[in-house]
Specification:
alpha/beta, Lyase, Ornithine Decarboxylase, Chain A, domain 1, 6-stranded mixed sheet
């Protein structure tokens, strides 16, 4: 992970929105990439932090992140998670459903503790991205539906629950890896229109509007996401125009970029193992499989979302990339990381570098096939820092327990109770 790149991107975000909409707050979406080191970096740069589980919250707390700058997300927060959020006094809880709202009201009342909240709404717009990373359409597990009246009902219940919960505003998140600003602008217009409808029936005014994250990055040379300044200008202009149209006061604009901050900062390094050529019907009549010492356990995105990447042989970076190969993982699946990658000559022992793997790669890594999760290293100003250790074989079995009746002994290999 390129630490300086992350810092520069954060500073670009801060400057862009300061220029176009000064009344704003930016939080980093921890789901994209989270460990204690990134919590420290984000805190140093003055951003808030968006977490979505007890584990993400605890990571932030143990790193010393200021909890008043934490937003707690999630579509199915347990009572334990809500109690943990209250215990650490997080800045805001983004309420996703009626059950959660009722539980939170009860907990805050019992604890005589006030909690700021946002109500998450589904604006009903279609983000033009992969169907599995769309979150703002009407048919979604996230938030309260605007068209059905659920959002209005949730706001009413939250206002009735004062002073234990303090409704500060609305939240929406429409999807991920978005390569234009249109959907954000549509969502802003819908949400502000909804607030205008509310204003005719209620004295409540939203102090905050949270537009989530979702700005895309370059996975391929052909990807052309908006520049951060262009994104800031488009969203700020859309918000200001909608507010002016409905004669509403100016709220604080919140957002939670994740992928667009860390995605292009990350490179994953693999060692090339077996190389195999097999015949195929298409021209030129053969496929070259290049196997690596990883795959879907450290990057499940190609299997989940048909995501595409580019790569190069790091130790042959200056050589022509004039031959296509297929990068294959070593798991017990098809597990293809990249089909038809332009790599050029490659040999066993080479180091394969896959670019733009800073987001939703390390954070989604698993121990499938009992693989060990890799190390994570920050690099900056010519120095490197280990921020997450490589797992050992002992780590893989550390939490396993063998009941007495399943213990394997030298004396007998028969299962207990066998006739």
């Amino acid at each position: 992970m390129d630490e300086q790149f992350i810092r520069q991107t954060i500073r670009q975000y801060k400057k862009a929105f300061e220029d176009h909409y000064p009344k704003n707050e930016i939080s980093f979406a921890g789901k994209a990439f989270l460990n204690q080191a990134i919590c420290g970096l984000v805190a140093q740069e003055g951003l808030g932090l968006d977490v979505a589980s007890a584990g993400e919250l605890y990571t932030a707390v143990t790193a010393g992140f200021p909890t008043e700058k934490i937003l707690f997300h999630g579509n199915n927060k347990s009572q334990d998670e809500l109690e943990l959020a209250l215990h650490y006094r997080v800045g805001r809880i983004v309420v996703d459903n009626f059950q959660e709202l009722a539980t939170l009201v009860r907990l805050t009342h019992n604890r005589h503790q006030h909690q700021d909240i946002l109500i998450r709404v589904a604006p009903g717009v279609d983000p033009h991205t992969h169907r599995l990373i769309r979150t703002g359409q009407e048919d979604t597990k996230f938030g309260f539906n605007l068209r059905s009246g659920d959002a209005r009902k949730a706001i009413s219940q939250a206002l009735e629950a004062k002073p234990w919960v303090n409704l500060r505003g609305l939240h929406c998140h429409i999807g991920s890896q978005l390569l234009d600003t249109q959907t954000h602008q549509e969502a802003i217009d819908v949400v502000v229109g909804f607030l205008a409808d509310l204003s005719r029936d209620s004295a409540w005014r939203a102090e905050e509007i949270d537009i989530g994250g979702g700005l895309g990055i370059r996975y391929l040379d052909s990807n052309r996401p908006p520049a951060i300044d262009a994104f800031a200008e488009a969203t700020a202009t859309s918000l200001l125009c909608s507010l002016q149209k409905h004669n509403l006061p100016t709220p604080t604009l919140l957002q939670e970029p994740g992928r667009s901050i860390v995605g292009e900062a990350g490179v994953t390094l693999y060692t090339v193992g077996a190389i195999k050529t097999v015949p195929i019907q298409e021209e030129p009549g053969k496929r070259i499989y290049v196997a690596i010492d990883g795959g879907m356990s450290d990057n499940p995105r190609p299997q989940l979302y048909e995501s595409v990447y580019e790569c190069l042989s790091a130790n042959r970076a200056g050589q022509p990339r004039d031959r296509k190969v297929t990068i294959a993982g070593k798991h017990c699946e098809t597990d293809i990381l990249i089909w038809n990658a332009d790599v050029g000559h490659v040999e066993t022992g080479d180091i394969l570098a896959v670019q733009s793997t800073g987001a939703y790669n390390y954070s989604m890594a698993s121990n499938y096939n009992r693989f060990r999760k890799p190390a994570c290293v920050f690099v900056t100003n010519g120095k490197s820092y280990l921020v997450s250790e490589r797992e050992s074989l002992d780590d893989v079995v550390r939490l396993d327990r063998i009941p007495a009746h399943l213990a394997i002994s030298a004396a007998s290999s028969e299962p207990a109770g066998a006739a």
